[in-house]
Design goal:
The chain has a 5-stranded antiparallel beta sheet, with helices on one face. Strands 6-5-8-9 form a 4-stranded antiparallel beta sheet. It starts with 19 loop residues before the first strand and ends with a helix. The protein is an alpha+beta fold. It has 2 domains: 143 residues, no CATH class; 159 residues, no CATH class. It has 9 helices and 9 strands.
Length: 337
């Protein structure tokens, strides 16, 4: 592998970025078992590679190599100017840029990758650099936009905002902390000690009660906000939540199927309401994470970033599964953009 100075070229037309969706991995099945792991679950952000086939997903997730090097695992499909899959060995340049369009790349890496018959590649970005992937460029906002190009060609599609990945991981982390608090309260209601479950992440981070307080408070507030938004959505679709008192629960396949059917039958006005609720949900998560990072301050944020982004460890399978809650109708997908 080699590296080179690169300039970010925005592509006009071509393969547009499909629906961007926050994706969860393995939502909580057993709070106590999760607490014993001392790690938040891995998370990823996925996006639709082929608008004509929403089942084909790409995605990106942070991970570490066996030697501890930070990398970004990235999966996508390479296409030529006629939108045909590019197969076989390809030289791909990955670019970290400060803006969504134009400008020079702050960081770049070139890898020789083999695309399959569908043009699919999976790249461990950062392995060509001794320091690995520059996560700090994402967390600081200095250069959070990821672009990629084949050879000397234009960028393959619209750049991806990697801050969504950090936001998603914090969201995952906060949901699990809220769930641990809920499980702890259940244990204490039975006369059992719930402190070990409640304080598992705090101990893993090495935070004092005062240092961890903003995390717990944010988790509680966000859980309440999302529960209310979910209730409003359920009122429109007439499909109840799988467990209203369990914000981290996932709907069953039957519930997802029923929800999709109900959404397809909704009036345009109700579909618009669902899109608005989806926007409110996304804004609530983004504002909660931004507020928490500001409240923690630089030193605690650095420690929390490391735990949240890499504590989950494993890499998700590719192609990524559909978003938690199932892939819904076009109305739902547009609401997630």
């Amino acid at each position: 592998m080699k590296t080179k100075k690169a300039v970010c070229h925005s592509r006009v037309g071509g393969n547009p970025l499909g629906s961007l969706a926050i994706v969860f991995a393995g939502l909580l099945a057993c709070p106590l078992a999760l607490a014993q792991s001392q790690q938040p679950p891995p998370a990823s952000v996925g996006f639709s590679i082929n608008p004509d086939n929403p089942k084909i997903h790409g995605g990106f997730s942070f991970a570490r190599t066996a030697s501890g090097l930070p990398i970004l695992n990235f999966t996508t499909v390479l296409r030529d100017s006629a939108s045909r899959p590019m197969t076989g060995e390809q030289e791909v340049t990955f670019l970290m840029c400060p803006s969504k369009e134009g400008g020079s790349a702050t960081w770049s890496e070139v890898q020789k990758l083999t695309a399959d018959a569908h043009g699919m590649i999976t790249a461990p970005i950062g392995t060509a650099h001794p320091e690995g992937f520059p996560v700090g460029l994402v967390n600081s906002g200095e250069a959070p936009w990821l672009g990629w190009q084949v050879g000397e060609g234009p960028e393959q599609q619209a750049r991806l905002d990697l801050t969504l990945l950090t936001t998603n991981m914090y969201w995952n982390f906060l949901q699990y902390q809220s769930e641990l608090d809920r499980k702890s309260a259940e244990l204490e209601a039975k006369g059992e000690d719930g402190s070990r479950v409640r304080g598992e992440y705090q101990r893993a981070l090495g935070f004092t009660d005062a240092e961890f307080s903003p995390i717990r408070d944010t988790a509680d507030r966000l859980a309440a906000q999302l529960k209310e938004l979910s209730a409003q959505s359920s009122a429109i679709t007439c499909v109840p939540q799988s467990d209203p008192e369990h914000p981290a629960s996932r709907p069953s396949p039957a519930e997802r199927t029923e929800r999709r059917k109900r959404i397809e039958q909704l009036s345009p006005e109700d579909k618009e309401k669902l899109r608005q609720l989806a926007d409110q949900r996304k804004s609530a998560v983004q504002e909660a994470v931004a507020g928490l990072r500001a409240a923690l301050g630089p030193d605690l944020v650095a420690r929390t970033d490391e735990f949240v982004e890499f504590g989950g460890g494993g890499v998700l399978p590719h192609p990524l599964p559909a978003p938690a809650g199932g892939r819904g109708s076009k109305a739902e997908d547009e609401g997630r953009q």
